Request: fold
Amino acid sequence: MTNPDSPTTGSGEPSAEDQRHELQGLLGEYHGLLTTIVQQLLPAGQDEETMDLLVDINSAFPGVSISFGEVQGELNTGIHDDGLGRVALTSEQLKPKKRGFRFNCSRFYGAISDSSGANVASQGRFNFIRAAKHAIRGVKWGNIIVGSLTKELLKFKGAEVIREFGEVIVTTLEQIVENKESKVTGEAR
Reply:
């Protein structure tokens, strides 16, 4: 039975509010992905070369979490509802971004759960590498969504903080993966 008070009742298209809520859900999922990477994956990949970098990432993350909240608050105003379509964050334009993001998040979480509930590091570097590569792709998809959102929010700094932190995570994971792969193959870095 349909809700007569729903903004989408009687129309085939989701309302602007429904589309905003979907985007806000994706932002929550992206925050969850970054949290899992920072709290579980990065510590499992830590080595002497990246130890100080990981300390800095952990120190920066609370500010990034605040930025997620600020962006959610800005979206809650409804002021940007019409603009979300102009930056490809509604309906059909959002679908491939959402699908790519969720696919890679699912693969990442699957790679972590393959370690039988234990820390990712207990399964060895190959499982870490698999999880890290899926995490990299998930973050890149998340950054595509946040990058589009940054265009709508213009000078609202929270979205830019999130996007740049995502780039830091991708670059850090690529560095750790390269270090681990070179140790396995014996190649110089």
User: Anything to note?
Assistant: The longest helix spans residues 16-45. Residues 1-5, 120-125 have pLDDT under 50 and may be disordered. The chain is about 75% helix and 0% strand.
